[in-house]
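Suppose a colleague, Dr. K., hands you the sequence of a protein chain of 263 amino acids and asks what its three-dimensional shape might be. Before reaching for any lab equipment, you can write down a predicted structure in token form. Begin with the sequence itself:
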Amino acid sequence: MEVETHCRNCDAEPEVEAEAESLPLALPKEPPTIHRLDECVVNRIAAGEVIQRPVSAVKELVENSLDAHSTSINVVVKDGGLKLIQVSDDGHGIRHEDLAILCERHTTSKLSTFEDLQSIKSMGFRGEALASMTYVAHVTVTTITKGQLHGYRVSYRDGVMEHEPKACAAVKGTQIMVENLFYNMTARRKTLQNSSDDYSKIVDMLSRFAIHHINVNFSCRKVGCLTNETSRFMRLLKSRSYLGFKVASDRQSPIVQTISKYR
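The predicted structure, expressed as tokens, is then:
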């Protein structure tokens, strides 16, 4: 009995190879043209790197408030910070003549030369935070400095003032409102639909600031809510810094009860 050793498909292979050889070679495509991005596009991309989510914006604003030697910093948010972030402080305020360039990129009061970086003590110095916010949100600043009879309010968009500063009533310090965060970045906004999670991140971040700045009063709440969400954390965190973890965590401790009574 003879065994067939020849593959039945072998006869088809030469035809396939011949057909492949007859196909024309694909010519390489022309390289794409390099062009400059529009400045607004560049700034918006850069802003998305600096301000990645609502807690990023709150962090930058709180650091500015601390650099302004504030002793009280109040944060109000809506929809986890997407609809509204409002940070108010009692710091030294912003001079009227500085408002024109306040939200331009790389404008800062923290340093003048590169060598100043060797002795920098402030939290912010790059001059990018406020500018970045104006490219991805609607920003309004209300401020008053010591000795002024009234404050000024001005809105910013894409790094520049939308109008001249308007005189207004104001309390000591600065209030910055960031509204409709990522209104022009649909993809980014879709990834931030969990407002409870974003709010929790903000409260957690402020609580961390509170333990490092025990002489500053922090508060955080949602719009329409009278409850101060950070006060309970601050009492516990500051008690830990004075008394240690075990004592501060014991709510029945007479020391903790005394601190809570007089704060």
